[in-house]
Each structure stands twice: as structure tokens, then as C-alpha cells.
Amino acid sequence: MTLSRRQREVLHEMGIPVWVRRGPSGAESMASIPRAFSEPLHAPVPSAPAPVISSAASSPPVAELDWEALRTRVASCVACSELAPRRTQTVFGVGDPDADWLFIGEAPGAEEDRCGEPFVGRAGQLLDNMLAALGLGRGENVYIANILKCRPPGNRDPAAAEAAACRPFLDRQIALVAPRVVIALGRVAAQALLDTDVPLGQLRGEDRTYGGIPLVVTYHPAHLLRSSADKAKAWTDLLRARALMLRP
Ligand code: URA
Asked: How far apart, in whole angstroms, are the C-alpha atoms of residue 188 and residue 226?
């Protein structure tokens, strides 16, 4: 993979060492992508219980909604009694509706709740840098969503019931985008998507799928802000995601 100067600069800013070797043409390239992985674990295809939604009793199921109707349904959801009354707004998701790359985080924080867009705080800036390092950009072949559409109070972890209630919305987004790869950002997203409580360290580095789509688990950008040492590992994960995506 040949890196542009901008990509090398971004990697440098992220604190990721860029190993270069000279090809026959003299072009610089990244170190090879890690070897192929063991047998894929197939995540159970999620069954989609219908979320409890106000005034939606006679509306079409979430799994049949188009983008506009889905956005409206999310905005009116009151399924979670602790989240709905406290939110400024729901945070639906952002990006290219036909993206190859789908990044899934945990839940909106204070800034996202205020702006209505995922990953707009410091963690979001790092995510943007990670995208730039891949030659991608927010909205350019990338869609970003969260497990939850509402901010949990005090940024606590999503409760299992909240994640389950919100899942049909996320599943519909995944179906509409039809990405070629899903990236689970952090423990909460990975455990929710894979329906497991296995620690993040054990979920990384293996080929997985979600609903038949290749799924790569990596660190949450907020974790990377605290633990720079893991940035190189996150970069390895992203290169693996790219390799999976390019697989015929
Ligand atoms: N962290 C997340 O997981 N999602 C956001 O949207 C913001 C921060």
C-alpha cells in the first residue's frame, strides 16, 4: 500500500510508526498486512425485536423503513425511559448512505447530544485522522453510527435492554448501507454486535462477521486518546479491515 504524504503526516500525528520499505520501483509501502486469520466466527444473525415506539403501533416495521422514515422513527423513539426524556436530540448517524465502510461506536456523548452527529468531540477528531490515514473521510465512502441513538446519562455504558431496544434501528441502517466491512469501535460496540462478554483484547484480531458482513473489532478512539501505545494495533486492525474489504 503506497502512502501519500498526507497519510504519512496523519499517521505521524497519531503516533503510529510508519514502517517503510522500498519496492523495486523505489516506492515506499506499509509493512505487510498481518497473516490470514483463523476460521471465521459467525456471529448470530440478530433477531430484531421491534422497539417500543410511541404512536408507531400501526406503522410499518423498522426493517421496512427507508432512510427518511427511519430517521423520523428514531427521532420519535421513547423506548428507553431513562434516555429519551434526558436527550437533547437523537443522534442518528452520518455519512455516505452507500458506504463500503461502516464504523459503529457506543453511544453519543455530551457534544454529540448537542450537535446531533456521532463522534464530533476529541475522539471524533481522532477517528477522522484514522479515516484520513486510510484515504477516507467522514461521508466519503464511510458511514458512522452508534449502538445507541441517545446519550446515556453521565456517559455510562448502555444497558443491555437499551442496546436491544435500539438494535433494530442499527440493523436497518446496516441493511440500507450494505457496507463491505463493519468496524466495531471499542468494547461496548464489539460485545453488543457479537452478543458476548468476552473482553475486547480477545475479540480483536480475528475474522468475524455480523449478519454475513465482515466485522473487524478495534479500539475505541477515546481509548486511543488515553493509550497511544495501542494506536499501532488499531492501525493494524484497519489495514486488516481494508484487506477483508478488498477480498473478492
Ligand atoms: N463515542 C462514541 O462511541 N460515539 C460517539 O458518537 C461519540 C463518542
From this structure: 17
Mutate to test the pocket of ligand 1, among 88, 91, 112, 162 (most ligand atoms within 8 A of CB): 112
Range of the domain at 97: 60-246
Angle between helices 5-13 and 122-133 (to 10 degrees): 140
65 and 144 belong to one structural domain: yes
Position 50 pLDDT exceeds 60: no
Q: What is the pLDDT of residues 197-216, one digit of tens each?
A: 999 999 999 999 999 999 99
107 falls within a domain: yes
How many domains does one find in the chain? 2
In the predicted model, what is the mean pLDDT of residues 217-221? 98
Residues 96 and 155 in one domain: yes
Q: Which three cell numbers stand for residue 120?
A: 464530533
- Residue-level pLDDT at 122: 95
11 domain residue, yes or no: yes
Choice from 114, 115, 119, 130 to test ligand 1 binding pocket (greatest atom count within 8 A of CB): 119
Q: Are 205 and 190 in contact (CB under 8 A)?
A: no
- Give the type of residue at 145: A
Do 125 and 223 belong to one domain? yes
Closest CA to 218 of 182, 185, 179: 185
Q: Is residue 32 part of a domain?
A: yes
